[in-house]
Amino acid sequence: MRQDIIRENYKNPYYPKKEIRVNKAFVLAVIFFILIFYWSYLVFYSPYFRINNIFVNKLEYVEEQEVVDMALRQMKERGFLIFSKDRLFLFDKEKLKNEVESKFLTDEVKVSGSGLNSLDIYIKERISSLTWITNNKYYYLDIEGNVKYEVEPSRVNRNYPIIYDGNNREIKAETGKPKVMDAEEIADLIKIFGAVGENTSFEVISFTYFDGDIHEARAKTNKGYELYFDLKQDINGQLENLYILLEQGFSEGELPKEYIDLRFGERVYYK
């Protein structure tokens, strides 16, 4: 008699079935590193996060493109030695702000990011009190008497004093920002410019400055003659002597045609 043996869930104790075990920690680690790689590529190399818009507000005296070029130069630098600084989170906004402030006359500079790839630069210009002209080139001076930067003649603000360098010194780029006048002398010229316009019937339209043993300033007036000042002496006293002379008046035929020299105290000469 034959009997079929039905084997259900038979396990040979001598040949146990091999189980495939999955190391979950390993899988999670692989997934983690893949995500890190993808995130790194997306952030550091994908064009999606690259700065592609640089906005500078409209400026009157500073060339906007020059500010953009300063930002572009920094974008070519490397952050953490290998990553380009063309990403907002790597771009050194404070560094650009300091560079703009050191090169241009400004009252306020703001550098900020907008969105994922736009750099916004806001500059509030400071109107320079004085324009320095030497070797047929125009420069702005700060209130300390330092040359800040060269400016196109067409962009010079003619409502403020213009100073011609009587010594005609050359401003060399490699010398940085040379100091051509003292801060006290700058203050004196501004005082002369304002005081003459307020207290006389004429105005000062420019100065010629001579740097030597006597720091002399010649103020050209819209009357055609010049006023000679010694910037090492008391400016208030020299202005007062000018007012006295003008109040006393000139004899007919003795009106000054070339100059009024105020450098020698109460002895005022004119020609």
Automatic annotation (TrEMBL):
GO terms for biological process: cell division. The chain crosses the membrane at residues 25-44. One of its GO terms (cellular component) is plasma membrane. InterPro entries: FtsQ_DivIB. Keywords: Cell cycle, Cell division, Cell membrane, Membrane, Transmembrane, Transmembrane helix. Coiled coil: none annotated. PANTHER family: CELL DIVISION PROTEIN DIVIB (PTHR37820), CELL DIVISION PROTEIN FTSQ (PTHR37820:SF1). This is POTRA domain-containing protein. The lineage of its organism: Bacteria, Candidatus Falkowiibacteriota.
